[in-house]
Amino acid sequence: MFLMNSHPDHHAPLDPRDSEMLGVAAATEVERFLTFRENSAPTPLVSLSGLASHLGVGSIHLKDEGQRLGLGSFKALGGSYTVIRLVLEEAGRRLGRSLDVSELHDPEVRAVARTMTFACATDGNHGRSVAQGAELVGARAAIFVHSHVSDERVAAIARFGAEMIRVDGTYDESVREAARVATENGWTIVSDTSWPGYERIPSLVMQGYTAIVHEALKALPEPPTHVFVQVGVGGIAAAVAAHFALALGSDRPFFVAVDPARAACMVESARAGRPVAVPPGEPTVMAMLDCYEPSLVAWRILSRVGDAFMTVDEEDAVAVMRRLASPLGGDPAVIAGESGGVGLAGLMRAACDPAIREALGLGPSSRIFVVNTEGATDPAKYEHHVGLSPTAVLARAAEPA
Which one of 23, 323, 326, 384 is most buried, by most CB atoms within 10 A? Predict the structure, then answer.
């Protein structure tokens, strides 16, 4: 499925709240926060010139978030950053003064953090980030996981000391249950999706993601002409689209939001012209994108600066995992989980479909930017799909040509 954005708000200025949260000044502050994190460094920007030649485009640059802060996904930027911000804000209220991130480990700040519990629902990666942030500041974390989250992903979250709570049903049902239990217990919900009356914290999560584009614009030889990013509830896609728009203005790239066909809540919202939920069906292999209701903030942004919406199928996601593991024309190998390469899968499908290719204006002068949003966060599933373990892929890539 492919749709050009026909919403009346398309090309309208971003809502002032979103401009403040996702602009250059905000990204600069996120970058400053990251300097206080252990093992923090810009993630690699990988040139895929062999694949670009194969697809008939000028260049493809991939930001590899599979190496972010030791957590294996871009989510490391959102949940933990938000936990830190909220602890500093609460400590500042109690202490009666403004606090800087440099004071995060002061005894009086940690004493406040010990009284706080942060909760969220997750497909795996966001919960790991919230749990890591809570451990970092000395707070508690309660993480809600739905029926389809693998035991391996649950274990990866639990190692940060979080309380793990299983919920029957889908991701969206776990979101509602997390909100209910947190409200009853006075916990702070750190969700990466928003709903009426709950927008600031998801916007802070998205603010963390602006580091991806902020870093990329420093490293790219030229700004991209086209960007393809996977959706889920929409946080990553909206943050990337908004920051490109705010940083580059009228020179912003053409932005394509890519959904799994089995969980196409943002595509269906674009079709309807308003946020809509889609009925749950068979789970998608793109587990981190197995979401059936879009974030309201993300929709507000993408209705303005999302230029096209499309879906990819199960085999597209697996094919891109294999292509990145066994690259073309001397390209470096990249470890991408089931959801990691979905934006690139969208590009590959679009480039091979004459009608979509023409609609997007893809050609030899096109400069493409995509994000690998996760590495092999479930190594067993990765090996099942690719036929090689992540270790084997890297070992093969290191062999002399």
Answer: 323
Q: Buried b vs exposed e over 140-160: b needs ≥16 C-beta within 10 Å?
A: bbbbbbbebbbeebbebbbeb
Same domain, 294 and 224: yes
DSSP secondary structure code for residue 5 in this structure: -
Residues 87 and 159 grouped into a single domain:
yes
Structure tokens at 349: 């499908």
Is 282:271 a contact under the CB 8 Å cutoff? no
Q: Scanning the structure block, which residue is given the tokens 């239990």? A: 181
In this structure, the chain runs to a length of: 401
DSSP 8-state symbol, 198: B
Structurally, the chain folds into a number of domains equal to 2
Q: Shortest CA distance to 324 belongs to which of 375, 362, 379? A: 375
387 Rama class: left (phi>0) / alpha (psi -120 to 50) / beta: left
**123 part of the active site:** yes
Looking at the structure, tell me whether residues 134 and 218 fall in a common domain.
no
Q: Around Cβ 28, how many Cβ atoms within 10 Å?
A: 12
Residue 196 lies in a domain: no
Per the residue annotation, which of 75, 172, 192, 381 is the catalytic one? 75
What's the Cα-to-Cα distance from 174 to each of 17, 143, 183, rounded to whole Å? 27, 10, 14
Can you tell me the distance from the alpha carbon of 295 to that of 165, in angstroms, rounded to the nearest whole number?
A: 23
Co-location of 230 and 123 in the same domain: no
**Model-wide pTM > 0.85:** yes
For residues 62 and 147, state if they share a domain.
no
- Which residue out of 123, 290, 316, 331 is catalytically annotated? 123
Q: pLDDT for 104-125, tens place per residue?
A: 999 999 999 999 999 999 988 8
Among 140, 156, 191, which residue terminates a domain? 191
Q: For 199-251, what is each residue's pLDDT tens digit?
A: 999 999 999 999 999 999 999 999 999 999 999 999 999 999 999 999 999 99
Number of Cβ within a 10 Å radius of residue 92: 16
Regarding whether 307 and 238 lie in a shared domain, the answer is: yes
Residue 300 is part of a domain; what is its CATH number? Answer: 3.40.50.1100
| Type and span of the H or E element at 354 | helix 354-360
